[in-house]
Design goal:
Elements: E1 2-7, H1 13-25, E2 29-34, H2 38-41, H3 44-51, H4 67-74, E3 77-83, H5 85-93, H6 99-105, E4 111-115, H7 119-123, H8 125-136, E5 140-141, E6 145-148, E7 154-158, H9 162-173, E8 182-188, E9 192-195, E10 198-200, H10 207-218, E11 222-228, H11 232-238, E12 243-248, H12 251-262, E13 267-270, E14 277-279, H13 289-292, E15 300-302, H14 306-312, E16 319-326, H15 331-345, E17 349-354, E18 365-372, E19 377-384, H16 385-396
Parallel strand pairs: 1-2, 1-3, 3-4, 4-5, 8-11, 8-13, 11-12, 13-16, 16-17
Antiparallel strand pairs: 6-7, 9-10, 14-15, 17-18, 18-19
Helix pairs in contact: 1-3, 1-9, 4-6, 5-8, 10-16
The chain binds cytidine-5'-triphosphate.
Length: about 400
């Protein structure tokens, strides 16, 4: 693919070198268009060596070959990383006072933007409006994430990680093979309240489910994401254009939202970690040690099995994907647990992963094995949760085309 990587003037420009490198290593012909400000942050020789092409920055160079439109016309994909607040404003209004502005205007290729700026700038109504305009016009946003910024401050505004930018870019230019599909994804972990301040919960971060929702949306699906108790950062990190997000907390709330959305869905992916029990009664006031003494007994009652109920009521052609996070260390025994669970839940596919005190939860990586309804292994995936999400979609949906 012929890819233009636009680099604008933010400190995150140094990370753009990684984006260029990954795209070149993936076999693409990469042309860097850098603003003058970007070249104050990262050197032209670095970008030329890594991209293996001349770096373009001047509107008045290469006039004879009409470079200001040629780069855009030839591009199959434009990625701008970092995209500063200033650049977003320029692109939103269609300004063409530099080579990058001209290149974008002269192109009908997918446009992927990786914003990077301080939190105040990202949250400023001007930037919010510009981003909305660009997204409505079809630009694909990746990030920004939440985290440590250049100074001592932290918050949303940090440029997305290189792997995620590359994955979003390639997905934006890739086939929209899920266009026309309705997909319901559940993510996070349900919580069951004990009293107004306490709950029984689990350690699911929701990252894999959110990555699935995002990957499906990037591939053209209409996605509903029902999330239970995930950090704001997980949603913001992923940037979720085209995904309808429904927030819930308890298992019963998740059940209601999932049942509602499942009615319309062609594919249901239950990545949420669902609490199997809830306290028989919820104290209306904070439970006190003085009244409980040295021991506190909790009576828990079973929650409904949401997935089992959904598969029991399946419509013709509906596809169900369950998840199973198991602590079993022996691979054969793990697969047996997975096979039994796939059968018990009535799913078409079961995504099996091992979890432990330090495995599986909250990390950005995952390793899974996907089983079909009959318990056969249809594939494995190991990598970032973003890449695992795409692989799962390939395995469970691609299989049916
Ligand atoms: N699940 C569900 N409703 C529940 C419990 C689980 O819909 N009450 C779904 C999960 O979202 C997941 C799949 O079922 O997709 C398997 O979840 P898991 O917790 O591994 O299964 P359980 O049936 O709870 O079995 P276990 O006794 O092993 O916890």
């Amino acid at each position: 693919m012929n890819i233009v990587v636009g680099i604008t003037g933010g400190i995150a420009a140094y990370k753009a070198v990684g984006v260029v490198r990954a795209l070149v290593l993936a076999g693409h012909d990469v042309h860097v268009v850098a603003t003058d400000a970007a070249l104050r942050f990262v050197g032209r020789p670095t970008l030329e060596a890594i991209s293996r092409n001349p770096v373009h920055s001047d509107l008045y160079e290469g006039v004879a070959e009409v470079r200001h439109v040629a780069l855009g016309q030839r591009a199959d994909l434009i990625v701008i990383a970092p995209a500063t607040a200033h650049t977003l404003a320029k692109l939103a209004t269609g300004l063409a006072d530099d080579l990058l502005g001209n290149t974008v205007l002269a192109s009908s290729a997918p446009l992927v933007l990786a914003p990077a700026m301080h939190t105040e700038m990202w949250q400023h109504p001007a930037t919010v409006a510009n981003v909305r305009t660009l997204v409505e016009r079809g630009a694909q946003l990746v990030g920004p994430g939440s985290g440590q910024l250049t100074g001592s401050d932290s918050g949303p505004g940090r440029m997305a990680e290189v792997d995620d930018i590359v994955a979003a870019a390639l997905a934006a230019a890739g086939p929209r093979d899920l266009a026309g599909r309705r997909i319901l994804v559940t993510a996070g972990g349900t919580r069951e309240p004990l009293d107004p301040v306490r709950f029984i919960g689990n350690r699911s971060s929701g990252k894999q489910g959110v990555a699935l929702a995002r990957a499906a949306a990037l591939r053209g699906a209409a996605v509903t994401l029902v999330v239970a108790n995930i950090d704001d950062g997980v949603l913001a990190d992923e940037g979720l254009p085209g995904v309808e997000v429904v927030h819930v907390s308890t298992t019963l709330e998740l059940q209601e939202a999932a049942q509602h959305a499942a009615g319309e869905a062609d594919v249901v992916i239950m990545a949420a970690a669902v609490a199997d029990y809830h306290p028989e009664s919820v104290a209306q006031e904070k439970i006190k040690k003085e009244t409980q003494g040295d021991e506190l007994e909790l009576r828990l009652v079973r929650n409904p099995d949401i997935l089992k109920e959904l598969t029991a009521a399946r419509r013709e052609g509906q596809l169900f994907v369950g998840f199973a996070a198991e602590t079993e260390r022996d691979r054969d025994a793990l697969l047996e647990l997975g096979r039994a669970k796939a059968a018990r839940k009535g799913v078409d596919y079961l995504v099996l992963n091992r979890v432990g005190w330090s495995e599986g939860f909250a990390t950005d990586r995952n390793a899974v094995t996907v089983l079909n309804a009959g318990g056969d292994i249809v594939g494995d995936a190991d990598g970032t949760k973003t890449s695992v999400a795409d692989r799962i979609l390939d395995l469970v949906i691609g299989d049916h085309d």
